[in-house]
Specification:
The chain has 361 residues and is of the alpha/beta class. The protein has one domain: Alkaline Phosphatase, subunit A (3-Layer(aba) Sandwich), CATH 3.40.720. It contains 13 helices and 13 strands. The strands form three sheets. Strands 1, 3, 4, 6, 7, 8, 9, 10 and 11 form a nine-stranded mixed beta sheet that branches. The protein has a two-stranded antiparallel ribbon with strand order 2-13. It is globular. This is Phosphoglyceromutase.
C-alpha cells in the first residue's frame, strides 16, 4: 500500500538517482504557511494578545471562537483538524516547551531565504538576502523532480505571494506557478475555475503583492482534481500579512482557515484512488516571529526568535508519533532530502541537510 506525500519542500538537481524502493510514498504535497508561530500551533491563542475578557486590543471579541484557559483546548479550537487527524495519525515537531526544537538555518529570517532553504535543503545568505523578484540561482527540489521522466509535467506550484515564480525560477524550471494574482489559464477551464478567476478580479485583498488565501487554495484544489499531479507545493500567506498589520484577530482567523484547507486537501487525498495511501503531506513555515506586543508583528535578524519554526508530517511511511515531546532539533532544510528519500530517490545536492529519519519507514 502506497501513500501520497504532502510535503512543504523543494528539491535540487535534475539528475536524481533511483534508490532502493522501500517506501510507499508515490506523491508529495508540500504545504507552507507564512509566518505562523509555533506558539499558536501548540498553545492556541496567545494570552498576551487576548485579555481575560477575551477582547482583542484593536476590535472584536475572540473569546467564544478562540479562548479557553487551557492551552490544549485553545489549540483544538484554533486548529481542530491538526489536533485530531494530524495529531492522531501524523507527527508534529517544534513544541519548545518540551525542548523539541525546529530552527531555520538561514540568518535572514524572512520569506525568500526561508523558502529557498526549505526547497533546496541549503541556506544561502550570500545570494538570497532580500525578498526582491529575482530568479533563484539555486535549483529547488521541485526543479530536480521536474527534470526526471517520471515527474516531468507532474509538478505544480501555487502561492499567495507574487514572488513564488522567482523563488521556483519558473522560467528555468518549466514548472507552472500560479501565484500572486495569476488566474487559471487554458482552453478547458472548469466552471469553478472561471468563477474563481472572476472573483479574484472583483475581491481585492488589502495587500499589493499577496492575494487572499482562498484563491490560492481553490486554484490548487481545482488543478489537482483535473491534472492529478504527483508533486504539489502550496504556499499560503495570510497569517504573516495580518501579523505585519498588527491584526491578531485576522491572524487567528486565517490560521483556522488554513487548518480547514489542510483538512480539505487530506480528505481529497484519502478519498481519491490515485492518492489514497500513496501520499505523504509535510507542512511547515518559512520563519517564526517576535513573542511580545512590540515584536510579534515582525521577524528578521533583529528578532532572534524568528528562527523558531515547526514541521508536521503525515503519510504511509511515517509512524503515528503525534506531538513529539522529547528533546531534539530539526531543520526545515531537512525536508528536501527527506522528500526525495520518501520517493525512493537520492537527493542530488550533497550539500543539502540530512533526512528526518522519523518520517521515513
Amino acid at each position: 500500500m502506497k501513500k501520497l506525500a504532502l510535503l512543504f519542500i523543494t528539491m535540487g538537481l535534475s539528475y536524481a538517482v533511483k534508490a532502493q524502493e522501500i517506501t510507499q510514498t508515490e506523491n508529495v504535497f508540500l504545504i507552507t504557511v507564512d509566518g505562523l508561530r509555533w506558539q499558536e500551533l501548540f498553545q492556541g491563542a496567545d494570552s498576551l494578545f487576548v485579555d481575560d475578557t477575551g477582547m482583542i486590543e484593536k476590535q472584536g471579541s475572540l473569546l467564544e471562537a478562540f479562548w479557553d484557559p487551557n492551552p490544549l483546548k485553545r489549540r483544538q479550537m484554533l486548529m481542530p483538524f491538526t489536533w485530531s487527524t494530524l495529531a492522531e495519525q501524523g507527527q508534529l515537531y517544534g513544541n519548545r516547551a518540551f525542548g523539541n526544537q525546529v530552527d531555520m538555518r538561514n540568518n535572514m529570517l524572512f520569506s525568500y531565504p526561508g523558502y529557498n532553504e526549505i526547497l533546496t535543503g541549503v541556506p544561502d545568505d550570500e545570494q538570497i538576502n532580500s525578498n526582491s523578484k529575482t530568479n533563484n540561482p539555486n535549483i529547488t527540489l521541485l526543479e530536480h523532480l521536474q527534470g526526471l521522466p517520471d515527474y516531468k509535467g507532474k509538478v505544480l506550484v501555487f502561492g499567495s505571494w507574487d514572488v513564488f515564480p522567482y523563488i521556483v525560477n519558473e522560467d528555468r524550471s518549466g514548472i507552472p506557478v500560479n501565484a500572486g494574482f495569476d488566474k487559471a489559464e487554458g482552453p478547458n477551464l472548469s466552471e469553478s475555475e472561471r468563477i474563481i478567476n472572476r472573483l479574484q478580479q472583483e475581491i481585492r485583498g488589502p495587500w499589493e503583492g499577496v492575494r487572499l488565501d482562498p484563491f490560492t487554495h481553490h486554484y490548487a484544489l481545482e488543478a489537482i482534481k483535473k491534472q492529478a499531479p504527483r508533486v504539489v507545493f502550496i504556499a499560503y500567506g495570510e497569517p504573516d500579512d495580518w501579523a505585519h498589520d498588527n491584526r491578531y484577530d485576522e491572524y487567528l482567523h486565517s490560521i483556522k482557515q488554513f487548518d480547514g484547507y489542510l483538512r480539505e486537501l487530506w480528505d481529497y487525498i484519502q478519498s481519491t484512488p490515485a492518492y489514497k495511501d500513496k501520499t505523504t503531506m509535510i507542512v511547515t513555515t518559512d520563519h517564526g516571529r517576535g513573542i511580545d506586543k512590540s515584536s510579534w508583528t515582525g521577524h528578521g535578524t533583529g528578532i532572534p526568535r524568528s528562527r523558531e519554526a515547526w514541521i508536521v508530517g503525515i503519510g504511509p511511511d511515517s509512524r503515528a508519533l503525534g506531538e513529539v515531546k522529547k528533546e531534539g532539533l530539526l531543520y526545515p532544510a531537512m525536508i528536501a532530502r527527506t522528500i526525495f528519500q520518501l520517493l525512493g530517490l537520492t537527493y542530488p545536492d550533497e550539500n543539502a541537510d540530512k533526512v528526518i529519519t522519523e518520517i521515513l519507514p
